[in-house]
Amino acid sequence: MDEGRIRRLVLTAVAGAGEGSYLPVGVSARHVHLSEADFHLLFGKEGQLHKEKDISQPGQFAAKEKVTLQGRKGSIENVRILGPFRKETQVEISLTDSFLLGEKDTPVRLSGDLEGTPGLTLVGPAGTLRIPKGLIIAERHAHFSESQAAVYGVKDGQKVSVRIEGKRPGTLEAVICRVGAGHELELHIDTDEANAFGLANGSLAELVTEAGPRMVPQKNLSADARKVLSPGTKPPEMPPVAVPAPPRKEESPRNSIPREKVLDLVTEAEIRAAFKNNERKIYCSKKALITPAAADAAAAGDMEIVRLPEVETKKRDINW
Ligand SMILES: [Zn+2]
Description:
Helices cover 21% and strands 31% of the residues. The longest helix is centred in the first third of the chain and has 14 residues, at 3-16. Helix 7 (268-276) runs parallel beside helix 8. The chain is an alpha/beta fold. It has 8 helices and 18 strands. Strand 16 (263-266), helix 7 and strand 17 (281-290) form a beta-alpha-beta unit. Strands 2, 3, 4, 5, 6, 7, 8, 9 and 10 form a 9-stranded mixed β-sheet that branches. A 6-stranded mixed β-barrel has the order 1-14-11-13-12-15. The chain has a 3-stranded parallel β-sheet with strand order 16-17-18. The chain has 3 domains: 3-27 and 140-208, Barwin-like endoglucanases, CATH 2.40.40.20; 28-137, no CATH class; 223-307, no CATH class. Bound molecules: zinc ion. Zinc ion binds at residues 141, 143, 188.
């Protein structure tokens, strides 16, 4: 397992535990996506795209091949090609680059939204190509798989803010969430934005949404399971937290639950074990992490996962 994947898994678990919704930062340096036809115009008929290394988004890679960008006023050499080939050629630069090139009218756009964008000249070892459109400054965005989006509580197309701490702290607003297969947890900003906030690849930014993080993916769950699992909703059959006179033991099962029975992490294994023992309820602490598989298993077995808001979750130590 590569380090990026480990970090994404840990960050998603931290978010699921309600301890902060952090995103790993990916800084996009200027780069080019090429159509296959355009690649061969620049690198010759026999030219081939060679992988230098994988990048965080599944299937995408940085290629060994580079091109020169030629603008109205200046040029930038050694601009990396990202593979695989795309339908349309697209050049992503920073605002600073747009000044160097003399292309001040370059718009801020999401990747792939190229209608009405300016063109540019690309120079490769075997040819020069003038593209009629495709020059953009990438709009800041964050990638999520379906399950990561469920944990972070975001939807495709939603705009969120991210908070950055450190020596140059601040908040980046209007970060567009891109959710779906082929996306992996990462905040994508360009070099201008990264430098403004003192960020580098692998830095952390905290997602800020009004709703806050969700504990588990909610779809595919029964209505009852959803009620139990949704944060902020008190589980059924539970007296209010602040009871003036505590009820006697036999009236409140919660008072007789030993701490070791209250889980900080609920996985499918716990649900299956409890099911075998004919237990209908599993108790967990205030900010316990309930894995999606556990929630599904509980819903399938008609079991209840009862969150006890008065029992604090033991702190997990996470060092970066
Ligand atoms: Zn991206």
